[in-house]
Amino acid sequence: MIGARGWLRVVGLGPGDPDWLLPEARRSIQDDLIGGQARHGSDNRVELDRAAKALDLAAEGHRVAVISSGDPGVFAMAAAVLEAQFAAGAPSAWAAVDVQVVPGVTAALATAARAGAPLGHDFCVVSLSDNLKPWSIIERRVRAAMEADLALALYNPVSRHRPTQLATAFDLIRQHRAPTTPIVLGRDVGRPAEQVTVVPLGDVDLSVCDMRTVIIVGSSTTEVHQGVTGTPKVLTPRTYPDS
Amino acid sequence: MIGARGWLRVVGLGPGDPDWLLPEARRSIQDDLIGGQARHGSDNRVELDRAAKALDLAAEGHRVAVISSGDPGVFAMAAAVLEAQFAAGAPSAWAAVDVQVVPGVTAALATAARAGAPLGHDFCVVSLSDNLKPWSIIERRVRAAMEADLALALYNPVSRHRPTQLATAFDLIRQHRAPTTPIVLGRDVGRPAEQVTVVPLGDVDLSVCDMRTVIIVGSSTTEVHQGVTGTPKVLTPRTYPDS
User: Fold this and answer.
1) What was the ipTM of the complex prediction?
2) B31 CA to centre of own chain
3) Which of A31, A32, A143, B243 is the 20 to 30 Å CA partner of A153?
């Protein structure tokens, strides 16, 4: 739909369950469905192309919603759109586009909710994908999280092109954490195929992880209790012992 | 309301705007409003007392919703409830209570959405409150985030009883980050009094921060561009330079 002036909203769908879709996000999508909406499909892997197309349309005066699963602000389309806009520089049609971000529930916090409160205390969030960053910085960040005894959520743990890095990251994790440290594996959380597994670090089977898995590594204080229903409950308490 | 078997839901309200309240959370609260609902008010500072009261009621067979602003899984009531339940141990009435967590939008991600994508890449989340943990572990975690060049979100930056620690944390931050590093201050984001300020580290005025402020500290790659509307846009890009 063409307005007096275009805008671009990057809209978070959350994990997939409509129960976990914010009213503002639902409305942003519905607005675009009213009158003259056009869908421009694209492959998830070509995020900058999607961003460029969206900025072009908004610069022409269209009202554009870029749909992103989870929270668009966490390893997702909000950064891709702003990267394209910032790279174009100030004297450009793209610079005049008002980019707004509508948040959503990101996978780590959806997985955490299902598992109890594994991120109830200080934590760190790292993507293991080295498509856009060197492996050395990923390793440095995982090590920092371990040395500072932070709980750690890992996105994009593995892909066909990166089959061995998750094992390398876990070698590092095992140097700093006891074998009893709780690990939460969340796959398709908030979707019909949802799987949440809680397992001690010493028993974790990394071969079950893929790009749709989020991994939460406990800190030294993270505890597990068998819950009433199937999955055990995991807690990183707010209290930290005096050293 | 008394069911055949009690349960306890810890429900996230998000930042306050009903547009940012998940349908599951809204329904959880409405369920409790239907028939025989009783409100048990309590002070936010006595979280363990609230948790104990809620577990007592659920153990008696009531359906209990513990309301928590933001995401209950992040520095909030999910951890408090599980701490109380875990501490009571297995052969107790509390152990039989099924505790479920309904997530919400946490303050750091609400603030990030308003500012663009400052947490669009790897980041760390730390509470500066040393009510329940020693200051030494807080300092260690802030330093780790700086050394690993992570963006950093700070909760509970200051209180009447802790007037100087934010300045101490920023002394540490200034040792590792350039004066041009973007700082985002979000206060009451998602409420009518919302304020989002973007300022370079060299110019930040910490005296405007209080317990309702969330602070996001950029990494070395975080950029700022003047947006179309008032507040500048902040981006931590997904791309990291090869070292």
Assistant:
1) 0.94
2) 25
3) B243
